[in-house]
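User: Fold this; tokens only.

Assistant: Input:
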Amino acid sequence: MLTHFEQARTTAEAHEQLQALMRELLTHIAPERLHSATQSVFDANALADFSYADLQHHPHPVWILSEICRLLFKIADVKALQQALAVTHILYAFKCSHNESWRVAALYRGIAQIGLHIIDLGIKNVVSGLQSQEEFALTPIDEVLGLWALTSAAIANRNLRLAATFARQWQETASVHGFSQECVRATFARHLFGLICGEYAAPSDQIEAFKEIVPPEWRSAAGFLVEWARRIEEGRRIEPRNIDEPHPLFLGVEWRPAAQSEARRETDAPHLSDDFGLLCDIRRAFCHPNAIDELTPEMIERYADCLARWELPRPLYDFETILKHKAAIKNFQYVMSRLLGKQVLETVTNKRPIDPEVVTQNEAIILVMDVRKFSTLSEGCSPEEIFDLLNPIFKIMHEELEQEGGTILEFVGDCIIVVFNTFHGQQTQILEILKATMRALFRLHAHNALTVQAGLPEIRIGVGINQGPVGIGYLGGLARCHLTVLGNTINLAARIESSSKDLPGDVIVAETCFGSDAPDIWIAPDGINFSMRDVGCHAMRNIAQPVHLFALSPLLRSWVDFVPMGFVAAPERGVVYLDTGNARQPGIIDHHFGGHDMHSACELLLRQPDLLLEHLRGIPLSQIEFRLHTQPDFDCAATLYAAYELLGKRPRHELLQILAAYDDLIDQGRISSPGWLSDSLIGVFIAHQRRVADMSGGRASDWRLLEAGLRVIDAALHLLEATPTGDLARIFESRPAWFPEERRMIQEDRRRYDEDIALRSHVYFAHVNGISMPVEGLWLDHPQSVFYKLWVKTALNERGEERFCFMALDLSSTEKNRFIIRVDPDSGTDLNGLGPLLEQHETRKRQELGKNRPIEPIRYPADNSDPWYFGQGHEYTILDAPWEGTVLTAAEVQHIHEEWQHKGNA
């Protein structure tokens, strides 16, 4: 019997099958919804209203959730893939609740992420899902979809050789298990790769034979391949035309001719996914030297650059042959720049090779990169396989560093030497070099995830960077010489690179790179993608004076993903939940769960580090994944920062204890020294996150927000490292130039908050515990201040004899009602008992309105999964409405508080 996925041959049919599945699901778990809704209402978002406990009413819940995900992948637009992500959380919870393997949920999540261009994390999740284990049997169709996703991910990483490898596995797996549609798609992909790479041996009639056996819905696209192959044989180009594709050939990658292909071909630096479309356009339009001949030399050179990016030697040779015929000098320059580098070529062609003059550059920056344990890696490899291992690494380093003005001076075995500010006209700041180096490390991380799945070893590198004088000149005799750069600066850079084997960081930078002063990179923090640690002075072999070094690592140096608020997790090998998970088990570090007295996840981690270290023992950092809750806050970022330290070399335990103690105060709302907010860690942290969100139009991803938070924490600990007795509440006081926009934002926000008090507030009287009579409190209605929470302590203490004893906030929107009531954590008062009372009114009104909440997972100490927050984790000093909103109105919430009889008066 065909599955719903197999029955749906087109995107339209996938939509129909999805609707049928949703109706079938609702028949079992919520039949009342079938009578009050039209078919157009049903989509995968409806599943968000149900918990895994609800799904137990269906006889085959895993099967139906899996089929829904597969159909969403066949639709594969942004909305469908986002819906699939939401479904994976429900599937995960259901599998874990039954002690079943969660890997199919990881597989589906990875497939969706690759389609949404979250490539690196998607690769990791797909690879995790495809790993074979005795207790886990992956269904054949899911294995096929995983290989389809990896094929697409390899394309996004501009690795056609690897894409062809995965496409072959995709086709073979589909063929073995009789999935005819998938076999067609995989075969189609392999034909396409052959035509693009210029290595296709089959004549057009063989592709035409393939066209005759494909289903009718694929014949238009297959006919296009036939025409392409014929034009290669005839030496003619193919004119663009519309091609029907019943559902996507690749995931998140477009291959069909662009509607405005000329505009696409003019793009100089396209996005990776767009670049594949550009490549297809070029290979389709100029698939024969006769077609190339009509181009101008400038256009030939531009298109040749695209072929070089995709590592296609045969098509590139055709373009260079025509360029040589049309413009021999330009072709010579183009070929030689590839062999020597643009800067070296320019120097050579503008200078007499016999000129003995050596030019000294005093501010040159030298970067040395070396592959870790390469001798071990290359044992048993043929020379060709060694090239295959090294070439992608060197390509990544070249692409990232050359665009910042770097010139690869030497390829020395598994090492490269890159020079900056050495040749005429070069001027690159160290900050841009460091950012580019971190981007290269990030790309290498994703590359490793793909190649390890293909059976290749993981590659790690070390980098050393130094600045100082170098000499530029010709080395050798008049008959044979070589333009090179020499000097102690290069020797020292190589020694610094070697020190990365022992120091806590993959990139080690000499102090000289930052000038005479200490690093001051946070004056302009935008785009800083690394953390920096002062590792002191170190003696270097054959170097007279010790060298002051700084160790750098990516801000996000492992896999990081996000789960919904209130997510309930189960232990998973290689996965750690931070500030989420709602359980007390190894690998789950969540202080919200009952049974301990921790005030933050960071404190829990430092007091019980084995929850992390024992859980991950024997697992390399490159294979570890951290999962945090969405909209990551200070506790999320601080805990992840501490986890990185504990897993790395030489963790700074004393500094982490100071960070955890500060985090405890922040998570309880105890903002010390509020008057110094613009100098505080928490003030700048929130301001920087907000600024990053504003710069992206309010649509910053959770990854960008987390990275922003880590950036501020790292800057604060950099200062704290120099002054261990420093106060994080005023840590930036000595650096008024750091984070300038954020500090101005905080100062302006204080004025906005004062306007909130004057224009958007009113006073009412109600009880708090610890005071026998009703007391005066402030109701703040939709504050315009961003940092209102941080001003609360100040606002509750500023009025002297008339000080407010509590504050209520109305943060409701058109989507949901949300209210917060809080007291000063240091006031000696609390709201213990008000939360359960609000929850009783919530339950009663929901029953009257027929708006039930999901029961599982129960959020202690309530009886459902989305109750009012009673404040139990913060000594009952704060209450918060349900995450999805309350049915109570502002007037009802205030009235309930006014009528509440606290425990002292009960």
